[in-house]
Amino acid sequence: MPERYMKRAVELAVMGTGFTSLNPLVGAVIVKNDIIIGEGYHQKYGGPHAEINAFRDADSRGNDVSGADMYVTLEPCSHYGKTPPCAEEVIKRGISRVFIGMKDPNPLVAGRGLFMLQKAGIEVICGILENECRRINEPFIKFITKKLPFVCMKAAMTLDGKIATHTGDSKWVSNETSRKIVHQLRNKYMAIMVGSATVIADNPELTCRLPDGGRNPLRIVVDSKASCPQDSKVFQVTENKKTIIAVTNEAPDDKLECLRNAGIEVLVLPKDKNGKVDLCALINELGERKIDSVLLEGGGTLNFSALQAGIVDRAVMFVAPKIVGGKNAKTPVEGEGVEIMSDAIELNHIETQIIENDLMITGLINKKEA
Fold first, then answer.
1. Active-site residue flag, 51
2. Per the confidence metrics, is the pTM higher than 0.85?
3. pLDDT tens, residue by residue, 250-276
4. Choice among 3, 11, 51, 339 that is catalytic
């Protein structure tokens, strides 16, 4: 029975996707006599937390929450931030038991919310659907503990591992439903990153195009020598379409000045051993800017460099039931590659899903050797 209500809390939590960064996704359900009498989720950064919204929902229904159980995906906060501590409100409202999906990794909380509830005589049960609760908050967990963005590498390829034909045509590898999921990912992640080759070949806009809107991610172009045409769509900046270009000191000063004048933020970063932008330095810089998550949609060269640098946390791969062939056709991951199969980068915690005729495979990058 606890899993049933926590599952509903998880469903509520994900409704805040795209609006809560740098805060976590949280859902809360209030249950009395085996009936849901109030529910809510964290709707936007700086707004009321899930528990408060659940109380407000119960109040609007005329329901008395005293003696009820609360199911919440994340440990109630115990500190004053942009809102008062939720743990205090839970105590004040007379909740008898609190079922928690996972402890808050935030050092400001870190078990203090649980202790506060228990000290007040409230029974606390922790770890209900913990894996599901952690899954929806991967970016928050990494950023709050390491101050670095969570990086997800996404690619779509044919059955024979091609992302385009030998002529460069790539529209479309995956089906329309799979492409909609990609836009859902763009809405979820705070930033989207590509390399100069992708900009030159495809001239993408890199925006979120969902039927009900969505939030455009910050666009990041990794372009060591600033070789992308200045009239590229990704360099057309508006209030809700912003772009950063990451370069090295080999980028021409006059080109960088033109980009800055066009509203592009320019990051001049150190070189890696190959003379390209040092991706670890870039990720550290993004963390300093409080960017908690990045969707990597780079071509094969940038993808390999990112994997080699160890900055990728999750991979999402769409495999379409098509065969195009061509020894010169591009693949999702190129570069030098590994020399022996035992050095292959492995994924764990694998999830698979059939999207019409496409296969979507996702998993966490195994970093045990890193």
1. yes
2. yes
3. 999 999 999 999 999 999 999 999 999
4. 51
